[in-house]
Amino acid sequence: MNRGAVRAIARKDLASVVRNRGVLIPLLVTPFIVLVVMPVLLVGGVESLGRAGADLPGAAAQPFAAIGEQVTATDRIDDVADPRAQWATFVLEVFLAPLYLLVPLIVATVIAADSFAGERERGTLEALLHTATTDRELLLGKFLAAWVPAVTVSLTGFVVYSVIANALAWPALGRVFFPTPAWLLLALFVAPGIAALGLAIMVIASSRVKSLQAAHQIGSLVVLPVILLLIAQVTGVLLFGPGLVMALGVGIWVAALSLLALGASSLRRERLALRL
Amino acid sequence: MAVIQLREVTRRFGDVTAVDGVTLDVEEGEIVGLLGHNGAGKTTLMRLINGLLRPDGGGIRVVGVDPTQRGHEVRRLTGVLTEYPALEGYLSPRENLQTYAAINGVDHGAATERITHLLDRLGLSTKADEACRDLSAGLKQRVALARALMHQPAVLLLDEPTTNMDPVAAREVRTLVSEAARSNGQTVLLSTHNLAEAESLCDRVAIMRAGRLLRSGAPDELRRDLGTAEHVRITTDPERSKSLQEGLAPRWLVTPLDAATMEVRRAVSNGAPLAVADIVAHLAARSVPIHRVEPVEPTLEDLYVALHADDPGVGPGPGPGEFLAEKPTGGRA
User: Fold this and answer.
1) CA torsion sign, A124 to A127 to A130 to A131?
2) CA distance B83 to B191
3) Digit-coded pLDDT (tens) for A113-148
4) E strands present in chain B
5) CB nearest to B104's CB, from A126, A131, A274
6) Does the beta carbon of A133 lie under 8 angstroms from any beta carbon of chain B?
7) Distance CA A248, CA A253 (A)
8) Average pLDDT of B27-31?
9) Is A9 touching B (CB cutoff 8 A)?
10) Which residues pair with B191 in a beta bridge?
11) Model confidence over A50-76: pLDDT tens digits?
């Protein structure tokens, strides 16, 4: 294994992403919205939301009441009686958890699409295929170029989110409550796994599509399972606890590694060269 | 032993045979030019040689290594200039070269020195740290060539190396390629549309059409195959040019090039050498002054045109239309 070549490929792809505002901005916007804007709006505005809910007549107030009931029913939230604290912990611990998974997933898929399909579209892939790298080194270099930033952004986002979550919940809880065990598992185990899963899907997809646009379309489909998780959370069908998060993580890693193995076998030089 | 050996190499894409039974040897330190229209199979042949594609038939060896079995070993021996520069647009020329030096396992210190040398040699020093996407097409092509030369490979596969370059830069590149072969012993296989470039730079040329290798050999050798001069350029006094035309008709066809110079050929071409002495004697007998007689040798372009005579868009050329009928060739070199 030529580690220098792997590092050089990863560095080159990463530099291309960091210097391309068209790619970089969406990568930064998603974590900012999910991990900063949404908690601030949902929790910071809880009092006004609560007041709004209380002041609304009839059916319009029901969603707010329903959420409150659901939170209480789950027994998942810390033993707090204050509805404001219940709301804050529900949003910060449960509601935003699936959305957090979007961060590594989107970062990984956007970079991977650029790295594989984008490189072919720009015509730079051929030069790389003509080098002495093996198919495995090529795949590993490109994998690291997307996986390392995805994990870095999601872990940094997790740290930022932890600070914001504690700050937002402080008035209601009066203590540091975050990160919870489920979130620690989510950030340290599931997020890297889901980044790898997104990447594996993009590797397979990119070896079959010819344009960056087509790769992005497939990438956008990858977020659908996360949306389903979100719905499951909100409806109370499936609520994130440490056990569930661990099971989810194992499932995601198994799927990621299986698809990566499949992707590695589909990423053959000749297959790529045929699509130049 | 030939550095590049191709034996009956065939590659098909569906119903299209992109490379059809090509046999060719390229010796160490030799510069061989692949000539052919777009779609002739030149780029596919280079991809086959470098192990990016597998042949459907035949065999390939590069320095004795089979690219279908040990592609990455072959690619360690080769430096490739692709048809398009294929540079990382957001990286500078220096960064592009650093990246490919690392990918090709060039030691950091040696790479820095080599990059400085190549940037300087190719006139890129002032643009070394600008993003490649902001460079002109010609400059990008130079960076791509520097990338191919970066790790000092034994074999250079150059696809249209002087495309988009101004004449000065193109000449510098030709000098560089020539040096690579003459001084460093590197073997060069280059594809080009530029026949004059092939004629001046290449030890041998291989003319491809529709995947088949029509003919290969030294440019002089191929010109000789085409035949000796079938026409001659004669310069006389401007006021006697009319006498010259009248004196040679109807046995010879005379085409005025300017007031004093005429191009003379047989009225009916038979492929045989033109008897220049007969023409001169004929004119002398009529007291037509002759200042200069210049037999016009067939060029590589004449050969190329002759080999593509029945190709739509390519004319049969002035003289050697009979060449194909006389010397049919297979896909061998």
Assistant:
1) negative
2) 9
3) 887 778 878 888 889 999 988 888 988 998 999 999
4) 4-13, 16-26, 31-35, 57-62, 78-81, 155-159, 187-192, 204-209, 212-217, 231-235, 252-256, 261-266, 292-296
5) A131
6) yes
7) 9
8) 93
9) yes
10) B34, B159
11) 555 555 455 555 555 555 555 544 444
Residue A268, amino acid:
R
pLDDT for the residue B327: 35
Burial class (CB in 10 A: 0-12, 13-18, 19+), B326: exposed
**d(Cα A187, Cα A178) in Å, to the nearest integer?**
12
Amino acid B221: pLDDT:
80
**Residue A41 reports pLDDT greater than 80:** yes
Task: Tell me the sheet residues that pair with B293.
Answer: B234
Type of residue numbered A153: V
Best CA proximity match to B305, nearest among B317, B318, B288, B296: B317
Out of A169-183, B40-54, B145-159, which region has the weakest mean confidence (pLDDT)? A169-183
Distance of CA A202 to the CA centre of its chain: 14
Closest CA to B273 of B302, B230, B303: B230
Task: Say whether residue A122 is in contact with chain B using an 8 A CB cutoff.
Answer: yes
CA distance A212 to B76: 30
Q: Which of A104, A8, A241 is nearest to B108 (CA)?
A: A8
Are the C-beta atoms of B317 and B306 separated by less than 8 Å? yes
Quickly tell me which residue has 């690219």 as its tokens.
B67
| Gap from B274 CA to chain A (nearest CA, Å) | 50
